[in-house]
Design a protein that fits this description.
Elements lengths: L9 H21 L7 H32 L6 H29 L12 H54 L1 H17 L1 H20 L6 E2 H19 L3 E5 L9 E2 L3 H11 L9 E7 L5 E6 L10 H15 L6 E4 L3 E6 L10
Parallel strand pairs: 2-4
Antiparallel strand pairs: 1-3, 4-5, 5-7, 6-7
Helix pairs in contact: 1-2, 1-4, 2-3, 3-4, 4-9, 5-6, 6-7, 7-8, 8-9
């Protein structure tokens, strides 16, 4: 089991601090006697190093425990206000223990100086304060670098999303099918052709502006989904059966832009459509305010549009990088369910 540390840089801090710490600690306890010979210095340093290394391990365990109890950046002063008094008390016990040990077991030629006991405790407390602030600074530095890295990953994910969205805008297959359907409607029913053209305009207008933001209102995504499904319904007729049933209070929530494009394209391009066995798509919600997209399974043997899987992977990555609840996908023999967490505008991570 790996050793839990306050920060990844804690071993480096320990190595840099331990030599001057032990040297001056011995000087306070024994006076200049520790410098009478090289052998006495090495012996006193080695014994003290082992003793204080064990003590340091106890300190580290306490520090990690308190950090785990109050891990947030806003808990900094609470952590410090708890750590320092605990460390000061522990230092008093550790130094008294060192004096008692060296006095009771004369393993050194030097004898501890009782009059220096509390000066040694004071020094130990000062060093604990310094080490605590150094470790806290290192830990926050690591969090800051990690947050920069996560932010960069999130930006890259959104850039990929914008690229995938652009592919959707200019996808020749998608445009060909839409224009082919529109051409047929113009000849058969001009009124339906006008409605179809209006839906095409709404879809492409949203695709052109929807991926410039990290989050968009759910109501905008649902307007897009409605228009997209209307186009699909016009193309496939009774081979597809769709329904959107969402409460009005949910519409103020937010969602990454083009999420519905990714989900709906994944459903449509990975399933075979036929009038005998219509593809059913239901967009609903649960009691916790998640968006639920359920569809029947009529999977194709060969999926020609490989971007649909890439788009879904990218959407899942977005949620993961936001440090929020992840998208869940469950599947049975006859249906697949996408569960998408929604974001509260007041607590959205980006």
């Amino acid at each position: 089991m790996p050793i839990k540390r306050y920060s990844n840089k804690e071993p480096i801090v320990f190595i840099w601090v331990i030599i001057p710490y032990i040297t001056f600690m011995n000087l306070l306890m024994f006076g200049t006697c520790v410098f009478d010979s090289f052998w006495i210095f090495i012996k006193s340093f080695g014994i003290s190093a082992v003793y204080f290394f064990i003590i340091y391990g106890v300190f580290g365990t306490v520090a990690v425990y308190i950090k785990n109890r109050f891990p947030g950046p806003g808990d900094l002063f609470r952590r410090i206000s708890l750590l320092l008094p605990v460390f000061y008390t522990m230092n008093a016990g550790a130094v008294n223990g060192a004096f008692y040990f060296f006095k009771s077991l004369p393993v050194l030629e030097c004898v501890p100086k009782p009059e220096m006991l509390w000066w040694t405790v004071l020094y130990a407390c000062i060093m604990s304060t310094v080490i605590t602030f150094i470790n806290e600074g290192m830990a926050n530095w690591e969090k800051w670098k990690s947050s920069l890295s996560e932010s960069e990953k999130l930006k890259n994910a959104y850039q990929r999303s914008k690229l995938l969205g652009l592919k959707g805008q200019i996808n020749p297959h998608f445009l060909f099918n839409c224009f082919n359907t529109l051409s047929g409607l113009i000849q058969e029913n001009e009124q339906e052709a006008e409605k179809f053209l209006d839906e095409m305009t709404k879809v492409h207008r949203y695709l052109l502006r929807g991926d410039d933001e990290y989050l968009v209102p759910l109501t905008d995504e649902m307007k897009f989904a409605t228009s997209y499904l209307n186009l699909t319904k016009a193309r496939f007729g009774n081979a597809i059966d769709t329904k959107i049933d969402l409460p009005a209070e949910l519409m103020s929530k937010e969602i990454p832009p083009l999420s519905m494009q990714v989900i709906l394209e994944n459903i449509i391009y990975t399933n075979a459509l036929s009038k005998k066995e219509p593809l059913t798509i239901r967009i609903t919600s649960d009691e916790r305010g998640h968006l639920i997209v359920t569809h029947s399974l009529h999977e194709k043997t060969i999926v020609q549009n490989l971007d649909v899987d890439e788009g879904l992977d990218n959407l899942i990555t977005k949620y993961r990088l936001m440090n929020m609840e992840e998208i869940r996908i469950t599947e049975t023999a006859d249906q697949r369910v996408f569960l998408l967490p929604l974001f509260d505008p007041e607590t959205a991570p980006v």
